[in-house]
From TrEMBL:
Domain named DUF7059: residues: 14-92
Nucleus listed as a keyword: no
A biological process term (GO) from this entry: methylation
Domain annotation Methyltransferase small: ranges: 130-259
Keyword tags: Methyltransferase, S-adenosyl-L-methionine, Transferase
Protein name (Swiss-Prot/TrEMBL): SAM-dependent methyltransferase
Residue runs in coiled coils: none
One of the record's GO cellular component terms: eRF1 methyltransferase complex
GO terms, molecular function: N-methyltransferase activity; nucleic acid binding; protein methyltransferase activity; S-adenosylmethionine-dependent methyltransferase activity
Family designation: Belongs to the eukaryotic/archaeal PrmC-related family.
Top-level taxon in the UniProt lineage: Bacteria
Amino acid sequence: MKDPLVRLRESMLATGYTLDGVRERLGDVAATALSREELVPALRATRDGDPLGTLIRLWWLGVPVEPPPGLPVAELAAAGLLAAADGGQVVAAVHLQPWETGGYVVSDRKVRPGDPALRADHVVGAGGASANLAQLVSRRPVRRALDLGTGCGVQVLHLADRAEEIVATDVNPRALELARLSWALSGIEGVDAREGSLFEPVAGELFDLVVSNPPFVISPRGRFTYRESGLRGDDFCRDLVRQAPRLLNPGGTCQLLANWLHVEGEDWRDRVGGWLAGTGCDGWAVQRDVQDPAEYVELWLRDAAEQGTARYGELYDDWLGWFEAENVTGVGFGWISMHDSGSLDPVVRVEEYGGRVELPVGGYVDEVLAAIGRAHRLTGAELLAARLRLAGGVVEERIGPPGAEDPSTIMLRQTRGLGRTARAGMVEAALAGVCDGDYPLAPLLSAIADLTGESAADLLEKAPDSLRALIAEGFFHISTG
Ligand SMILES: C[S@@+](CC[C@H](N)C(=O)[O-])C[C@H]1O[C@@H](n2cnc3c(N)ncnc32)[C@H](O)[C@@H]1O
């Protein structure tokens, strides 16, 4: 007799309970509403009682249904997935949804306004933040990977095809229970799941890749483990950044999402840069968004469906009062990547970048980290002797008054990757036109000096600094061929 979870997985796949199947069955309007967590259009679209509509109602929408034929009800109830409902119907005890990897994610159901308060050991489902981290994580195959704070286990679904061995930890035992169901229903075997806080379950071990979508929410008290660590302010993310490098094998990478405080009188870049400095790793932190204290409090009160409750005003006031007492002016949301490059002179880059990026970032994040490190470590003389190549997809934009002979501004714009733009002087723009990896920089600069009448000595002295910035931002590569 087959394992009931294997039978469930096979029947979900056979019925078309996949992301594409659900999207097609619901239609654009209901599917898009569902991605905004609005259920009504999907409830209306699945009233027919067809097999796929029934699975969507049961597992995603949380509606009692007649047990679908062949569903091993008793076994799934014993596994904690199903419960009996009135009139011989069954109701899901969890939220079970297909995920973009082709697998399934089991979590607690999201709370909605009017629902009973969240349980303290609530296991949050895969959502926007989970997908963001998955998009950020390096695609390089690795031997050992760690997912710290695995929750419903979703990051493991993404790591499974590129890590030989995966350890997943969580402080919440219920999270590990549901994560194991996610992995079993996704056909993933052999994950080493361990209970415990921060790095305690993996003390003394080394990994090639550490990923974490941590409990980064900053609040006066840790009420919900799924999002708040209970540590003061942004200390959890700070500790993660400071301690993770100790677990990395040479060449290893650590990538996480984080929130950080903006405190009056302190530049947030110094705060986050301070976390990264001294880790021995090259580090890259990107602030993707920043919210003021009130927006932040509203976001997380809404997340726990606390708007409209009797305690809303009290909780809001308490949280805001704490921010005020701590001189907090805002909260930054972002990514942090660290790479153990082995250099004795590690480099840290902290920047704000809210623009659209090419996904998955993980496809080129290793290059970004390498470029930051290389640009920092090249001496002026090495740079002048290097052969540069304009990165693929870089275009030039010239802006100036109509009819003018020369543009007032020249911009280099990346049409791929991070989509950065950089202002270029005439020299950088000229180099962008000729750098194809064939000639070292010094003779190219001399030729540009001859053409423009500038002093070659001046160009050779000044160009390395501006080019170093453009190399760090991925506009030029050092040609190795
Ligand atoms: C935001 S959820 C992330 C879940 C999942 N990894 C994802 O990407 O969606 C954070 C997880 O960290 C766990 N957690 C909270 N405090 C922790 C701690 N001190 N050590 C380890 N994990 C912790 C929570 O139980 C929760 O499952």
